[in-house]
Amino acid sequence: MGHINPAPLIAGLDIGSSVIATLIAALEPDGRLTFVAGSETHTRGLRGGVITNAEAAISSLDAALDHLEDVSGQRIAAAYLSIGGAHLHSRNTIGWAEIGADAQTKPDTHDGRFSADQAPGEVTHADIAQAVAVARAHISADERREILHIIPRAYAVDDIAGVRNPLGLVGYELGVETHIVTAATTVCQNLLRCARAAGVEPIDVIAAPLAASEGILGALDRAGIAATTRRETLTAAIVDIGAETTGLAIYADGAIWRTLSLSVGGAMITQQIATELRLTDDIAEALKRRFGASVGWQAHEDELIDLRPFTQRDELLARRLLAELIEARVRELAATLYTPLREARQAGVRPQWLALAGGGASLGGLAEFLADDLRLPVYVASPATIEGLPDDLAHPGFATVAGVVTWGARQLRNTASVTNASAVRRGRRRRKGPLAGITRALWAIPHAGGFWRRAEVR
Questions:
Q1: Using alpha carbons only, how large is the chain's radius of gyration in Å?
Q2: Residue 373 per-residue DSSP state
Q3: How far apart are CA 199 and CA 42, in angstroms?
Q4: How many angstroms separate the CA atoms of 307 and 313, rounded?
Q5: Where are the beta strands (DSSP E) in 369-434?
Q6: In what order do the strands lie in the sheet with 160-163?
Q7: Quick check: 83 and 191 in contact, CB under 8 A?
Q8: 150 forms bridges with which residues in the sheet?
């Protein structure tokens, strides 16, 4: 009998302001992702989704990776990473290229369109890359910002718009609308440096709002939420509520239309409770999770909470007071989400529903409150792209790291050989390296035309 290669293993890290979520999944021959190991550990050294204390962040990463290796019996040599924070920006741009023209041919007009006569040709990968390069040129060079993703939204061949896959079609000109996500260069560098210092090599970096969407859209399909709307025509919003930031990804006609990160999160609710009731953040967080409600009327006016298990003192707290404190901050979250959703509607993009992910999505009554306030159907979604997730990890807060691994799996499927492309190995532990010697070039992050670049898996 011939030797059967084991399924390659993919590791993902979602490094948030309060929690590091880690995941290893096996990419099965039929394309399924099955759970191998995962964990959630406390984070130090991050504020607002970005690293503010390198030493503390490295220590947190090191502890998270050690724990993952202990429970999995695997050595994490490399991993896919998420990146969040309000520094994330996105923009949609359009580029045109002459079909079949030499890549060095220059367009005659400012928008990249060609005016010279030519014979029709068949669209190739080179034509697509050239059109994307023209669209990329609309983003001015800025050494302070790094391009994370260049994602084609839709194509046009001559005057035929809305083309999903132009390969093999015949025409004179190819147009592409791209969604480009950028991040602060220094934030990216700090993330990569800390990951390498903790002994893991970054393979690719994924914007957290996109990763969260990747991790839950399958769940919505399975639940029948999107059953009446094909993925190709999906128009929806995905909200990833973290501790200090909230990611928002808006999809229009089945493709990502806007990506951004907002400076609000679940921690502001915890801090409101802690300040008003003079409690520690840990106790405030525990009360929020166990007794929290998003609006005051959801708590009976006579219901009392015994604080003895939390404070070791004979104290009672009216649950309605707790709910009213939470409601004040939930209204702030709703107001912050309202602005980009209104801008989307003004641009003709009207989400049919909104899905909640992230640790803050589990707050009692939040989905109902936002549905009422934003006038949209709102659902709480859990990760569905990884089969066999244990119950303690199958919650909305684990969606982003599930999406990170799913993103990595798609890159691996596009490589010539998947069987030996695993980023996870059995054997000795990671070799932890120093901070010194990190190059300025961020090789792990795709640059112009990088949407088609095969990821280098190590």
A1: 23
A2: H
A3: 18
A4: 7
A5: 378-380, 424-425
A6: 89-98, 173-184, 145-157, 160-163
A7: yes
A8: 180
Residue 321 phi/psi, 5-degree rounding, is -60, -45
The amino acid sitting at 74 is Q
3-class SS of residue 35 = strand
CB 96 within 8 A of CB 106: no
Distance CA 202, CA 192 (A): 7
Q: Report residue 98's pLDDT band, with 50, 70 and 90 as the boundaries.
A: very high
- Determine the Cα–Cα distance for residues 441 and 124; give it in Å rounded to an integer: 30
Q: Which amino acid is at 134?
A: V
Instruction: List the one residue out of 409, 420, 418 whose CA is nearest residue 11.
Output: 409
Instruction: Please tell me what DSSP assigns to residue 235.
Output: -
Instruction: Give the Cα separation of 440 and 450 in Å (integer).
Output: 18
Domain boundary pick from 332, 355, 381: 381
Q: CATH number of the domain that 333 lies in?
A: 3.30.420.40
Determine contact, residues 38/68, Cβ cutoff 8 Å.
Answer: yes
Q: Tell whether 362 is covered by a domain.
A: yes
| 438-445 contacts, C-beta under 8 A, 24 or more apart | 438/189, 438/192, 438/193, 438/196, 440/189, 442/146, 442/185, 442/188, 442/189, 442/192, 442/205, 444/192, 444/202, 444/203, 444/204, 444/205, 445/146, 445/147, 445/148, 445/188, 445/204, 445/205
Give the separation between CA 78 and CA 60, rounded to whole angstroms.
Answer: 17
Q: What b-and-e string marks burial along 155-169, b requiring 16 or more CB atoms within 10 Å of the CB?
A: bbbeeeeebeebeeb
Residue 108 inside a domain? The answer is: yes
Q: Which domain holds residue 269?
A: 235-381
- Domain finish residue from 381, 405, 421: 381
Q: Kindly report, residue by residue over 25-82, the tens digit of the pLDDT.
A: 999 998 899 999 999 999 999 999 999 999 999 999 999 999 999 999 988 999 999 9
Per-residue pLDDT tens for 376-422?
Answer: 999 999 898 999 999 999 999 999 999 999 999 988 887 644 443 44
Angle, CA of 72, 74 and 75, to the nearest 5°: 135
How would DSSP label each residue in 69-82?
Answer: HHHH--EE-EEEEE
Structure tokens at 396: 């909305």
